Amino acid sequence: MLIRYSLMFFMVISISTSVLALEITPGEWELTVKQNVSGMPVGVPTQKHRECFSDDDPIPTSFLKARQCDVIEQRVRHRTVYFKINCFTEHGSIINEGKIKFSSLKISGNSKTDLGEVAGRTSVLRYKFTGRRIGECSLK
Questions:
Q1: What are the residue ranges spanned by the domains of the chain?
Q2: Nearest CA to 75 among 66, 67, 89, 85?
Q3: Which of 76, 91, 124, 126 has the fewest Cβ atoms nearer than 10 Å?
């Protein structure tokens, strides 16, 4: 009986720790995204995107210009979200995976999308982003 209660206690503590570890300041955030494509000499100009984040929705997707993204994997460790998402774009389904680290008013992270073979070469889109909280969520 004591073992059962001890196991339940540790499960509750571990679940609470992973939830509390993120603690995003909810609201609208502005992301600055730098994108490059493997094998391409010229990168894409830096872009800015706005996105609402919360503890329940911490994964950036606006820069992917997707209609819908489904979370395949998500782990939280020390205010960092590791993710893998399947997004649906006008060109089909893509898998994007990466990590994003939150502090109270700033974020940073990176992700990649493997496009497979394009014109006989393996192509990978890599994204590096930074961001800051700009206020309450006004996006619809």
A1: 2-135
A2: 85
A3: 91
